[in-house]
Amino acid sequence: MFDLLVMDLDGTLVSLEGGRYIMKYSEIYRDVLSEITGRDFSGYDEWKLYAPISLPYQESLRVLKRWGVENPDAMWSEIARRDYSARRERLGKSIVLYPDAKDFFEHLKGNGTSVCIVSNTPEPIAMMEMRMLGLTRYIEKNDIVCFRYKEPGSKPEPWAIKELQQRHGIPPERTLMVGDSDIDVISGRSAGAATAQLFRDGRHEYHHPGLGPDIECENLMELLEAIE
Predict the structure, then answer these.
(1) Structural domain boundaries, residue 76
(2) 105 shares its domain with 169
(3) Of 60, 90, 120, which residue constitutes the final position of a domain?
(4) pLDDT tens across the length of the chain (228 residues)
(5) What are φ and ψ of residue 178, in 5° steps?
(6) Based on the structure, what is the number of domains in the chain?
(7) What is the pTM of this model?
């Protein structure tokens, strides 16, 4: 067992419409981009739109500049505002905890393992999800690090994981980063941590071929079996 588990939130602990919410988020993203730049982004699929979130800060700035975004802070703020409203309507209906999440935390309770959250979801949205879905009973607020547009907070930057390692006094080799995407693996590896990637619903999708996490599993109970 590792001494520190750093967990992603959406797609790992929280099901966003069984993975389908990304279509709604992409719609919001495209609408805001089109409104602020006057360009047509309707041909951009979700993975092309995701690039500025999944890249290091300076690279993401260059992408947004090519797209005609003059004020990235204003863009992200407007996307987050609309995203908050859309998710609030769905919470408890199509946005729910994965069935294994509570069992996972109950199993870890009292065994000395520290569990933290590092999410690229903006803090107001992440905290709303965690409160309404009951996750705040398991994780302290100081152990939740959410999306920050400006460097160095968001994944794939390793800063947040390293900060949590220092805060808890746990070395990289005793840390496991758990997520459902390649950027979780990249950020964990950059922080010197072991990595586990969840392929929910049996989906094995790699967007960085050859990256390869240390552990692959389909749910959190399989993860427990792999690390205990």
Answers:
(1) 19-90
(2) yes
(3) 90
(4) 899 999 999 999 999 998 889 899 999 999 999 999 999 999 998 878 887 877 777 888 899 999 999 999 899 999 999 999 999 999 999 999 999 999 999 999 888 899 999 999 999 999 999 999 999 999 999 999 998 766 556 888 899 999 999 999 999 999 999 999 888 999 999 999 999 999 987 565 545 556 789 999 999 999 999 998
(5) -120, 125
(6) 2
(7) 0.91
